[in-house]
Design goal:
Blueprint: H1 3-24, H2 30-53, H3 62-77, H4 83-105, H5 110-129, E1 140-141, H6 160-180, H7 182-192, H8 194-199, H9 204-230, E2 232-233, H10 240-253, H11 260-278, H12 283-296, H13 301-305
Antiparallel strand pairs: 1-2
GO molecular function: branched-chain amino acid transmembrane transporter activity
Membrane topology: Multi-pass membrane protein
Subcellular location: Cell membrane
């Protein structure tokens, strides 16, 4: 049996059981930590689609989280409360911006692509800070949250945890299916040898743009869910440092693997929480720990859990 599939199934089974188990041991407060980890994992999985499978290293991916979050927040402030309408609004706005920025960014490759995505990300970040009507640099506190046809099932006191878990599973499963499809094979061919892929007749720029937009849409959905959980939105979620965290999660977990982004995101959130609760200068330990993992687990955390014969599945 595919061990990576078993590991993924175990992770989701544990997440599904946590809302029942945590209250039994008096640790219900950890639910918020798990939600934070799941939201990071959704965005990391989306980034892995373009980095791990497409070879497009973006340092502005967090901007799409910010776009999705602000699209939802502005929609709520305008009186739109149905989460399905907010989801549609988020997808349209995020997809439109991704289509424009992606078409321009994909005219470049390598470090130039990284720099132009950083530039676009910073443009979006400063645009969000300039929205004075919605809190500007201080952010915006939301006094009303989205509902599902009047029900609070998509709110913190309802079933938001399970909604986020469902989106995480769909992202994990969907990106894996994309990677195993003909589309994913063309993406990897364009990553490994773009000249040969073009000679074979594949319009690689079109494939890369579609992957870029799909990744942005998933990140935008994570922004919508972040707003619903935090009841607050701030431009800081679109900063380039946030994009750096996503890249660390993807690389740390294992590029282009089934569970890599998932493992990396949970590792970062849990280790940060543990270290910060023990020592104030926790980054002095966290940094060298990441370096050691990168040096001695070259395939990331996935390399430690999955046999070499099953890597990348």
């Amino acid at each position: 049996m595919d061990r990576s599939l078993v590991i993924g199934a175990l992770i989701f089974a544990c997440l599904l059981a946590m809302p029942v188990l945590l209250p039994l041991v008096g640790a219900e407060y950890l639910t918020g930590l798990l939600i934070k980890a799941m939201l990071l994992a959704i965005a990391a999985i989306s980034l892995d689609l373009i980095i791990g499978h497409g070879g497009m290293v973006s340092l502005g991916h967090a901007a799409f989280i910010g776009v999705g979050a602000y699209a939802a927040a502005i929609g709520l402030e305008s009186g739109i409360e149905n989460i399905l309408v907010l989801l549609l609004l988020t997808l349209v706005v995020t997809g439109g911006i991704a289509l424009i920025t992606g078409a321009l960014a994909l005219r470049t490759t390598g470090v130039y692509f990284l720099m132009i995505t950083l530039a676009f990300g910073q443009m979006i970040y400063f645009t969000l800070t300039s929205l004075a009507a919605y809190g500007g640099d201080d952010g915006l506190t939301l006094w009303s949250l989205a509902t599902f046809f009047g029900s609070d099932i998509v709110q913190n006191r309802g079933g938001l945890y399970f909604v986020i878990l469902a989106v995480l599973f769909l992202s994990w499963f969907g990106v894996y299916r994309i990677s195993q499809s003909r589309f994913g094979r063309v993406l990897r061919a364009a990553r490994d040898n773009p000249q040969r892929a073009e000679v074979m007749g594949y319009p690689i720029a079109r494939y890369q743009l579609i992957a870029y937009v799909i990744a942005a849409l998933i990140a935008g959905i994570s922004g919508l869910l972040l707003v619903q959980h935090a009841e607050f939105v701030s431009p800081s979620i679109a900063a380039w440092q946030r994009s750096g965290d996503l890249i660390v999660a993807v690389v740390l977990g294992g590029l282009g693997t089934r569970n890599g982004a998932l493992l990396g995101a949970f590792f970062i959130v849990i280790v940060e929480e543990l270290l910060s609760s023990v020592i104030h200068e926790w980054r002095l330990i966290y940094g060298p720990l990441l370096v050691l993992l990168v040096l001695y687990a070259k395939g990331g955390l996935n390399d430690l859990l999955t046999p070499a014969a099953q890597k990348g599945r």
